[in-house]
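Apologies for my clumsy wording, but could you write out the amino acids of a protein and the tokens describing how it folds?
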Amino acid sequence: MNAKKWVLTFLLLALVLVLGLAAFNYVTDPFAAFGDKFLNWFSYDETNNPRVAKISYLEQHHNEYDSYILGCSSTSSLQVSDFNKLYDANFYNLIMYGADMRDCEKIADYLIEHYEVKHLVLNVYLDNGFTYDDETDRLTRNLHYLTDRGDLELVMAEGKTETAAELSFYTRYLFCDPRYGFAKLKNLRNDRLLPQSFDVFNEVTGEYDKRVRDVEPIGSMDTYLEAYPVFADYPKTGDFVLGQTENCMKSVAAIKERCEAADVELVVVAAPVYIDYFQNFQAEDVANFYASLAKVTDFWDFSCSSVSCEPRYFYDATHFRNAVGSMIAARIAGDDSVYIPDDFGTYVTADTPSSYFSEVLQATALPDETVSRDVPVLMWHNLAEESSGDMTISVDTFRAQIEALHEAGFKTVSLQQLYDYVHFGTELPEKPIVLTFDDGYFSNYEYAFPILQEYDMQATIFAIGVSVGKDTYKDTDHAMTPHFGADEAREMVDSGLISVQSHTFDMHQWPPFEDGNAQVRETLLPFDGEADADYEAAVEADFAESRELLESITGQPVNALAFPEGAYVTLTQDALRSAGAELTFTTVRAVNTVVKGLPQSLCAMPRFGMTESTDMTALVAELEQ
């Protein structure tokens, strides 16, 4: 082959490779620059670059929304569900990690010009004072060309057309490193129902997908600091200079002007900052940042309060939990029915005294006993005249245990009282304690109920739905310990002392009595190899059946479940939360801690198993520590 043919062959091969690279990147589209037409996995694309992928998503779905939340990563905990309710709107959350106010200005301009926008919620975070117009990575931190009017203006100033800006944008992604596309294909095979590090967004709402964090059990401060050591030894990352405050405020002013011209309601919030994060700045610079914002626009200031001093309201050094976002929406709405610390949220205007901006940074933590309470939960199963193993204790022993609790001054509380404490801040009595029974045995009615009436003590019974009123196992002739029926349940509930909640409908099966034709669910754990979606659907259906049965019997809401044998995984909690189970219980031996404003403190609550041999003197001493 002569030299000319070698050159032509080489050029042809190079062309094939270039075209192949472009085709591969177009099909895999790991940044959704081309609308992710083939894989349609926007949660993954948004994780790579939310600035580009979210605009691509909205180009296809903007008719589903009429309002937007805009800002850096802390914006994610401003949940669209809360703001939809607040403004009777359909919000989309345009949270972009590392977003500066120039990004927000450009995107707000595009939204208002091209989409229907009724409300715009803008989060101005402290970090916006030291970063501005930063696009250090042209793949992962740049804007979509549709929103990057600054790039377009530069291109047109050079005598080029808008088409040239578009071509530059798409060329960059057509010929990017193919490892991005290969990573997407690899992760697609490993994708699960719950979020993983490669798909952290909920593409429909735009928020970070925090389903795992929203069911994460949270309890005592000591336990939390063990799980999140960053709050025990908070890092001082440096002396940050808020040198972009002026530019930031110019962009806020531009957004405000654009909203006013288009009759868009603008709501500006300053999101909560963890108290130790302020140590990275000069106090006078921080005060100037928020004072400068007040000169530009009225805003809701949540930046520093007692919430900033409570680590359990944050999940890392700079991000607060969804529950805090719900507090923000409630404060804006003037909803005093839910728990919100008194100092959380101030409406700041140009008339706010200058001293406010320094004084607000002096926030202090609420005493631990003000924001959380230790509430031990005890667990029994069956009672009988004579004890027969750990699960069945004698009536006399049970009476002695109740007497010991009474003498020690413990006050029984219901699950509703726990719920009200967490969600509404309704105080609990001194030395609160919760009494529970698992399975729903007839002995709970025959023996335990009269003793509880005698001492005026409340309790919750977690009943297995399929066994209610039965003394044989399901549809078999296998005898089993009798369970109370509808009449007994109604009588106990009507007394005002007893609540009947779920121990599943039929997910606490006994293998020797099953017919062997199907896998047996002894507990709520998934089967080996069971698909996540199938498992969650099964759990949700089971809880729905249990709730329907028990509510039809008692006329009382069913929103709690005790895990059979205490076994569960995160998927279990996620499924039950979706199905409406707001309190769940394990069999782990520990004192439970409930925290005002944190629904997670009602997840997987530990319990003390009570047996015939329980030493009440030692137990009472342990519970009183």
